[in-house]
């Protein structure tokens, strides 16, 4: 699963609009541990950072039903 930051408060990441990363893990609090394309591994924090998940197939922001097949984690998250 790819993710793209909309707004982050962390000054150390060097992330810029349009950067993307790969979701490594989502913790119990909804934090998204991400390996960014620039090599950092900042976690995104709900309520602090804003981000959007990207559809693995078409690369567009993931919306319910976008290319998601039954059994995908994203599909499970919609249930
Ligand atoms: Zn799609």
UniProtKB/TrEMBL annotation:
Pfam families: DUF4314 (PF14192)
Domain (DUF4314) ranges: 3-52
Disordered: region residues: 1-22
InterPro entries: DUF4314 (IPR025463)
Protein name listed in UniProt: DUF4314 domain-containing protein
């Amino acid at each position: 699963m790819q993710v793209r930051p909309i707004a982050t408060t962390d000054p150390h990441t060097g992330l810029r609009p349009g950067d993307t990363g790969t979701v490594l893990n989502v913790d119990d609090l909804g934090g998204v541990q991400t390996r960014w394309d620039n090599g950092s591994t900042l976690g995104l924090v709900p309520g602090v950072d804003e981000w959007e998940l990207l559809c693995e197939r078409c690369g567009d922001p993931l919306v319910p039903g976008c290319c998601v097949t039954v059994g995908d984690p994203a599909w499970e998250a919609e249930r």
